[in-house]
Amino acid sequence: MRNSGAVLILTFIAKLILQAAGVSPPGKPRLTSCRSPEKETFTCWWEPGGDGGLPTTYALYYHLENSETVYECPDYRTAGENSCYFNKNDTSLWVNYNITVVASNALGKNISDPVEVDVVYIVQPNTPENVKAVVVHDEQGPFVRVSWEKPRTADTRSGWITLIYQIRVKQEKDEKWEEYDAGMQKYYNVFSLHPDKECMVQVRCKPDHGFWSEWTQTTYVKMPNYIPRERSLWILITIFSIFIVLILTWTLNVKRNSMKLCLLPPVPGPKIKGFDKQLLKSGKTEDIFNTLVIQGFPPTTDYENLLVEYLEVYDNEEQELVLEGKELSEDFMKSKSSSDNDSGRGSCDSRTLLLEKCMDGREGSGSDQHQYSQHGETSWASTESSESQGAEPGSPESTDGRAKTWPVVFPQPHHHYPVGAVKPAYHSVPEILNQLSPHATPSNYHQLHHQDIPQQELRFSKSACRHSQSYNQFNLDGIDTPAPGVPPLPSLEYVEVQRVNPENMLLLRPLSDPNREPERSDCTGEDYSKVKVVTSHNILLLQRDTSHQCVDDYSQADQCTTQQPPHPCKPAVHQWNSVMPQEGMRVMGNGYVDSTVLMPSF
Amino acid sequence: MSRSLKQVAVLLVALLCLDPHSRVSSAPICTHGPSGCHVPSLADLFDRVIQHSARMHSVSNDLHSEFEQYFLPSKNHIGKIYRKCHTSNILTPNGKENAQKLAREELTEVILKLLMAWRDPLFQLHQSMADQQDFNSFSSNKALEMGDMAHELRKGVEKVAEKMRVLGMLGNSVTGLSAAEAMLPLSESGEAMSDYELLYCFRRDSNKVQNYLKILKCRIVPEHDC
What we know:
The complex is a heterodimer. By secondary structure, chain A is an alpha+beta fold. Chain A contains nine helices and 23 strands. Among the domains of chain A are: 20-118, Immunoglobulins (Immunoglobulin-like); 129-231, Sandwich (Immunoglobulin-like), CATH 2.60.40.10. Chain A has helices at residues 2-21, 229-254, 256-263, 277-282, 285-291, 355-358, 383-387, 462-466, 468-472; strands spanning 30-35, 42-47, 57-64, 70-72, 83-86, 96-105, 108-111, 115-118, 129-136, 143-149, 163-171, 178-183, 187-190, 198-207, 219-222, 308-315, 321-326, 429-432, 450-451, 495-501, 505-510, 530-535, 539-543. Chain A is rod-shaped. By secondary structure, chain B is mostly helical. Chain B has a single domain (41-74, 83-220), classed as Up-down Bundle (Growth Hormone, Chain: A), CATH 1.20.1250.10. In chain B, 60% of the residues lie in helices and 0% in strands. Chain B is globular, with a radius of gyration of 21 Å. Chain B starts with a helix and ends in a 6-residue tail after the last helix. The A-B interface holds A 39-40, 65-66, 88, 91-96, 113-116, 118, 120, 155-160, 162, 184, 208-209 and B 54, 57, 61, 75-76, 78, 80, 82-84, 92, 94-97, 99-100, 204, 207-208, 211, 214-219, 222, 225-226.
């Protein structure tokens, strides 16, 4: 009794002393992991829990499931410190191992928690071996072929273990690895690598049920420098397309003008006779409008009732006179009505150009007398005004200071124009709308081929331009006023038909001619007359406005037959004070003179 | 629909293959060999069977981990005692050498025994999982699937054995398996095993089957993948 008490006290004191010295029984060890590299052996590792200051020994004990026999670890050394290696003989598959580790030192021992292990499920193979990466040059571009071998310890040959492989690739300066599954094969082709870069490759493997092995050491391979075929194809395509673009540009450049015509059809020039486009561009508005104003014209109220239309005659290829009715537009500044046939043509190409535009080199020896009328509008074709001007709208070759002759085209230079005779190429005849009735009038008259085109402008056909030459050949024999002696008139001016000489020529004289009869002086406001009627004797009856007080001469084509008259015809001046009744004339519905009947047979 | 098409196709093949002059007998359809139809080789048969067993094992693995995750504490819990699986009576090689020492016939027999032993317990497992409220239908479907797969696998292995026998690779020492024991999964104490224990045991046994089949294949047809 006393001894046990003494022993107790002694041990207590010893403990206290030992504690003061810092020694204690070992801490609890812990099994960290158990692994089998080939499903035939396995190893377990533990970590010590603290030795308590005294040298501690560790022992591993295990027992199989459903068996009470406890075995100790057969091999503490092979696998290193704090490990236990189970060799083939000690390894049984499909059996649970219950493993514990015991740490013991002088003061005591400590037992770890038990761990249940079935070897089949702790397989972690060794890394694959002999990894090789080779650059293979292919027609589609080089790629890297990675090949390796199975870990030496794994027995796949007998089918005991089935390994699947995985490789990962990283090119220099990339952040992430690219992983590829290679299945059970022992090679892999890596495509889509960038040229001229170093490439790092690693491989690992895993059994069908188990853990991945560690990655192998990095294998380096350098990609060659090459241009990807895709890129070269794109380069080729780019060059080709540039080439095509250049060709197109060159073609466009060559065909610049026709392209312009096609894409941007030229705006038809203003058809205002005598209107100066240049002035419009540069001049002041006052000047522009002044040019349109004729002195003394228009008489404000006189022409309200007049409805005169232009008859335009132009010559087509078949030598037919084409007369197109033309109504003066309201606004000489604007383009004409919707059915304007001028659209799309340049001013020089416009068929509605007044003939004056196309005349150059003309020996303007007389001024024409145009008769215009308005539909009660104040604005009217500014052709008169433009006559007094120099430039013609849109006509670069307009002549300045030239008197415009009657737009008659002579087919041949010396072919005189017989009044009412045949074969003038064309001319335009103003037409009296409501009062004229141009029925079958004698063929002496102008061969006017009437075209019933209401609401259209009177147009001078294009062919007028071509015949402008003959136009000019207006033989003014015997005429008083024209001929070189005529003082240079301002560009456009009205002329009036003075008389018709025996050779069936219209003798014109400008309205502003100082040589005019004085009786006309007080009627200088009258600048034009209109054809009232064409009588059966090849007489153009020009009419003055009825309301006008003046009694002016009426120019008329005198009775001159088509044959060469032996004597010059004397102009007979008829005075009309009133509007001619309707007989004797056939007015087409809209006032056009039907001149088809006047066409001579050639 | 596909089945009827298959039947039609088979009939057509039969018409092609059949020799009109031959006597009526229960000859297999493809008597004329490769010209008539494709006969799977032994290697193909093995591959199919191995794939099937791999699938079966993975399903059992999934179920087992599901079980462990939701219904049971951690693996290393003290006091976890596994009862013996009902198939522990069947002698199975527990190592590579042992497995390689076994003859082909024995190995085949072991496989077939194992598969046979699990026919009823799997059915039982499915029933009990379906009955319990704890399992969702997905899990019980997996159990059912497992049972079907085990059944098919057994049939497949039997076919392989038949083929091997025909080819003369297998002696006639393979005992008739029709007398295979239909074991009841009773533990030593006579109690029925729980679902978890059944799953645990089946996972292990399916792994065994897969392994044995692979060994058998690489021993018999070692050309590829070995």
